[in-house]
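It would be a great kindness if you could assist me with a short task in structural biology. A protein sequence and the structure tokens that stand for its backbone fold form the material at issue. I should value your view on which stretches of the chain appear to form regular backbone elements. The record follows directly beneath this note.
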Amino acid sequence: MKKSILAFILPILFVISASSAVSAFAATATATMTNTVTVANNCSIATVGFTTTYDPIVTNATANQDVTASVTTTCTPGASPVITLGQGANANTGSTDAVPLRRLSSGGGSPTYLNYSLFSDSGRSTTWGNTAGTSPGAASASGSATPLTIYARLPSGQSATAATFTDTVVATVTF
């Protein structure tokens, strides 16, 4: 029986001593790894224009046609967005980025025009132009969508033929 116990214990002792010898000669080395991510300021912009009717004979003969449109920006937190609105594709003579003279066109070879203005306030007294100075200060950079209302006015008393009038205004967010 002693021989069978020794035959069983000896291999176990051999494995234990071999494991200890390997551990005694093992070494380790370490290094640190630096990971870097740079988040750049970024913005996206989307617009919804206005659609309305204009009645130069009755309703709008003496009353302005007031409507709204919208611009929505989503900017990286920490960005400083400035939203500007271009003069439009049919700007009148004398139009500038600071004081745009916007017009809707009936299109075709001999277009007729309807004047209109875009404002940043509901009282329609602050023109929204294509300069930082005419941009509203309400744009935020929170990482979430920030909608802003564009207040539009077609002045009363304009003569117009029956047609569909359009204009294209470029909205820009600078950040």
Notes: The first strand starts at residue 43 and ends at 48.
